[in-house]
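note to self — DONT lose this again. spent like an hour looking for the file last time. sequence + predicted structure for the chain T wanted, 364 res
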Amino acid sequence: MQGVLGIKLKKARTDLGLSQAAFARALGFSSEFISLLEADKRAPSLTSLNKIAAYLKKDLGYFFQEKEGAFNILLRGDALKGPEGLDAASQAVLQRFKRYCDDYLRLERVANRAGSSAGPSRRLPLAPFYTNISPERLAEEERRRLGVGDESIRDIFALSELNGCRILRLPIPSGAKLSGAFIFLEDREAAFALINSADTPGRQAFTAAHEYCHYLKDRHEGPLIENPDVFIDEYVSLYHPREKFAQTFAACFLMPASKVQAIIEKEFGGRRLTFDHVLYMKRYFGVSFAAMLRKVRELGFVSAAQFEDYIKRDPDSREREVFGARGRRRANASRPIYSDRYMLLKAEAAKTKRQTSDSAKSKG
């Protein structure tokens, strides 16, 4: 596990978009030396550190100053735009999120202790960290890395989790300033995202993809709180540019243009789409009606006039009328939705505890 110097050095290097090899060449060091420094397996001399600091335009103190705890920052609401800070309802949700994160990591430690020393670690490996890339390219590169081609991602929550970003879905009260959150615990190399389980399934999927983007590109920038306005086209530009980036990534990641076009060509002859056609596409990609409508408008399959008409209609009632309730079941929005992996770790920990107790009784 990296210490402060290693984490700070790696972040400063990746912020410049440099590989270890390129960074080493620029400084006249070996790649192995930089690798050992970032892993905190070797301490640099004062001369070497001064050379690195001068190249990065950093004070020496930058490499040794401990960062404030990520959850302290999150719970203060520093990531929220505006002077008011977090409301009480949002604070309560984030406190519950923190307890979940702590418990999840505890269960991973229990699972590692219970397993064989030769067995695989139950800690999730991190996905690659991307820099200097467009949101469209990032979505394409990540889909290629995951081997999913341009097919629909049927479970963005499981995909995100198995690639290192753990998910918790909690009901967030209406009117709260909180719609989602992302946190990366650098000292534990663990990422978590919070999703509002009171949202529609399609909206939850889009939020999950949005947070997954922060995980891939912004995880070293500190905790992030999503205001509900971030997900509204008219307001997203008021926030940090990374929010618009994440919105664009989510649309490209969940609804690849090539697949959208292929389905429309095959099913509808490439012509303008009716309201029901958009509903059909929305169900295929598992996103919200609004997200699907924006995508097909962007690709030219609905006109500006159609967009203005369709966005005012109620998609839910029409979807039930045309497609019935099949595939529309959702968990109780008033309850948290825990990931399958978390529940499995919890069951394994309970089993281990029973076995330990039984063993102690038999010896007694």
